[in-house]
Amino acid sequence: MLSSLRIQNYALIRELEVNLSSGFSIITGETGAGKSILLGALGLILGQRADSSVLKDKAVQCVVEANFNISGLGLEDLFLAHDLDYDPHTIFRREINPAGKSRAFINDTPVMLKVMQEIGYKLVDIHSQNQNLELNDHSFQLMVLDIYAVNQERLKQYKSSYNEYRSVDMALQQAKIAVEKSKADLDYYRFQFDQLEKAILVEDEQEMHEKELALLTHAEEIKLGLSNVAELLNRDDGSAVNQSKTALGLISKMSSYLPEASGLAARLQSVYIDLKDIAQEVSWIVEKVELDPAKVSYLNERLDLIYSLQQKHHVDSLSQLIAIRDGLAQKIESVSSNEEEILTLTKQRDQIYQQVVDLANVLRRERISVSEQLERNIVSHLTLLGMPNSKFKLEITPLTEPSMGGMDSVNFLFTANKNGLLCEISKVVSGGEMSRLMLVIKALISASKALPTIVFDEIDAGVSGDIAERMGLILKEISKDMQVINITHLPQIAAKGDHHFRVFKQDSAHETTTSLKRLTPSERVEELAKMLSGENITAAAILNAEELLKS
């Protein structure tokens, strides 16, 4: 529950701190005194957005701090999920600086506003007059039915399966789009791939063919040149080999009397052996080199094919061509893979869809099973609130496709008149009727919703007298299960509170400020008497106020 609220520099509030208790708390005050300011400050704590316009003193930051007792609410896992320290006495704080920058804290740990909203949603329900319009919202109507049916755990299971279904279905649609796109390009990919595949490209063959072609192209020149070299080395008269052999013999004879001859002989021996080897190798090469016009033609054609493919694909190496070929093969293969993925995803989606339908059917059965009881309870409470001719009907319509809330649409049908036709709420409910109907619904679902605190902002709009008395009794009944804070203008409701606060304005020479005061028993009598008779409090009003409190 909300234990305390501290507000600094917000709207007309300079500084205010209030301690709150369990049970039924009443807030009263004249129109314009600042009751809505309190709700605005509490809204900041629950994650509503704000800017520097809320600052009373534009040079000083605004601080709103709320202390909650959250023991027994089972929020430990939620705090852990957001990496927050759990404390049964948890403090929410908002700070807004003069530049309009806002910071949010939970137990002194900075948090994003959405985290404050998520946790705050489980702590406080603020109901204003504008929220009466929620009754026209079919999603709100469905939520009311599910809360009454205690469907929270079933809804959690359903939403888990539904989100999985949506995720798989989205993956399936994306796979189908990918296949369609791939199929559109498939003929082009296959043409490109077939052309490269038929070329039977081999790594490094381009360099090898270019060298071989250069050899064959110059074969005649090579053969003639090497033949001349072989003749110079091996001819019968004056060949280099024979002359080096003769010179070796002459030098060797001088080795006995010429010291240098041995060295020269060794060198000539090496030259002779090298020349002899060279002559043999040249002769072998001459025999090997052949003129092959057919091979030249083949190599030219092969290289022309490689060059044309490189030019077509804007690359300059054979390895790049091979990479393109392999990439095209993968693209072609991926079409088949995507088609297999579609079959797998379709099967998976259909299985999850059946789970979703089964869980939706469980939800529908629970909704139908409690619908008549909810209808009777609403009519019964409305009768107590002075609407004895009311008729209320829950129209549950099956949907053909799953939605986030199941496979049902819920429509509230209502009439307040005897023999009146049931119609959608938005078409037949007046402001006062809307307030009473919303109060009845809140009363019926408050215990199931398991919220620690609910704030009603003038939910009694449009009612008075005995009906107000009965609304007060219903609010009092709700406060047995949760903390109820009610802002009201009606003394019949204010008298039912366990605690009573008055909002009032104070004027000084320089400013107007809003303050809040917990009333003593005597002050409370005076406040109720003022609500009954106006500023000029009469003795009868005092007696009436005392009677209201006693009752």
Keywords:
alpha/beta, six-stranded mixed β-sheet, 551 residues, 56% helix, 15 strands, Rossmann fold, six-stranded antiparallel β-sheet, 17 helices
Strand order of the largest sheet: 2-1-4-5-6-7
Strand portion? 15-25%
CATH top level of the domain at 1-123 and 451-519 is Alpha Beta
Mean pLDDT, all residues:
87
What general outline do the C-alpha atoms trace?
elongated
Biggest sheet layout: 6 strands, antiparallel
* Level-2 CATH architecture of the domain at 1-123 and 451-519: 3-Layer(aba) Sandwich
CATH homology-level superfamily of the domain at 1-123 and 451-519 = P-loop containing nucleotide triphosphate hydrolases
For this structure, the quaternary state is single chain
Helical percentage: 55-70%
Radius of gyration: 48 Å
Q: Which structural class is indicated by helix and strand composition? A: alpha/beta
Q: What name is given to the CATH topology of the domain at 1-123 and 451-519?
A: Rossmann fold
**Span from first to last CA?**
27 Å
Low-confidence stretches: none
* Count of individual beta strands: 15
